[in-house]
Amino acid sequence: MTDKATELVIRALDAFNIELPSWGFANTGTRFGKFMQAAAANSVEDKFSDAGQVHALTGACPTVALHVQWDLPNGLKDVEGIQKLAQKYGIRPGSINPNVFQDQQYKYGSLGNPDAAIRKQALDHIVECVAIARALNCRDISPWFADGSNYPGTQSIRARIGWFEDALKEVHTHLGPKQRLLIEYKPFEPAFYHTDIADWGMAFLLARAAGPQSRVLVDTGHHYQAQNIEQIVAWLLHTGMMGGFHFNDRRYADDDLTLGSIDPYQIFRIFYEIHAFEWETGTHGDIAYMVDQSHNLKGKMEAMIQTVCTAQELHAKAALVDQARLAGLQKSCSLVDAEECLRGAFWIDVRPMVQEWRRSHGLPEDPLRAFRESGYLERITAERRQRNAGVVTSYA
Ligand code: LRH
Ligand code: MN
Fold first, then answer.
1. Is the CB of 289 under 6 A from ligand 1?
2. Phi, psi of 153 (to 5 degrees)
3. Which of 4, 101, 209, 325 would bridge 146 by S-S if both were Cys, CB 3.0 to 4.6 A apart?
4. How far apart are CA 206 and CA 173, in angstroms?
């Protein structure tokens, strides 16, 4: 590879961080069951320890996303504990995820619930999450809403839009000057007739209506099969509404599989749109790259290390697209040459350059092998086996 290519990859990786989800280290499953792993994180301290280990091995994930109900069950009272863990494990709290989908009162929705008292409860929780983010010096609050309905005629879709608009406007008034509200959309599940925030357009309009510090969060698993996700990304970049990503992969629906395991070219095409935008505008996209996966079968630590390494490789490949040449080929409608210019970068084996980046940062060339040789898995398995034992889950 030319020095120019290596230089492009090094510069791209220096600017690339990806945030890990605390819940990706815990025992998770599907409605058909949860297969327990003895080494799984069983406390927020375990999650910081695991995230800290992945960052120590990869140098690319200095923050961990927190899900308030799971990681700060006592809300603001847990902030000091989190600050101590961040200190101890060298990993900063990242995006703050409210949870208005788990509790019983949210059966018919949270901000979209016909019951004003329940809407108020959900609003209060999200406002507390803004305060938690402020106390932890976290920039992004990223609520996802399971809200919707399962049968036609059972809810007023328009009334619920109004309730969401009002509530998100209220949330926005509580944001600190540097904070952002990232609105995540999802077409279905757990609601199977309508979901209140089902696609990028709905999230876009609600974010715009909420206020200038609100943006859209794109979870790659939250799209219908035929949707062109990178085109959505292009629109969000063009309109200044691109807030961040929840990266994962899927074959069917919101499968939450490891990034690049099914369709690595999809993530490459997304990174290409961002690199093209940054090249054309000379600006940095101000995008929160985050992982949102649940590792039901793979070892959670290995799956997370695999994910970070794959993200680095796909980001590096996209950085090798000759933007100037491609722009010319697009202008002259040189279809085959343009396609080969883009796809050619995807075929480049960037791993030697990524290893060089790791060496230059005193990091192991092969984080997965370094992890396997570290004894970390054996240690946490011994420590956590008892705490993870006896937790049997069944669908009914
Ligand atoms: C919903 C979602 C959301 C999270 C959850 C863990 O499917 O993507 O981002 O809160 O997964
Ligand atoms: Mn998500």
1. no
2. 85, -5
3. 101
4. 14
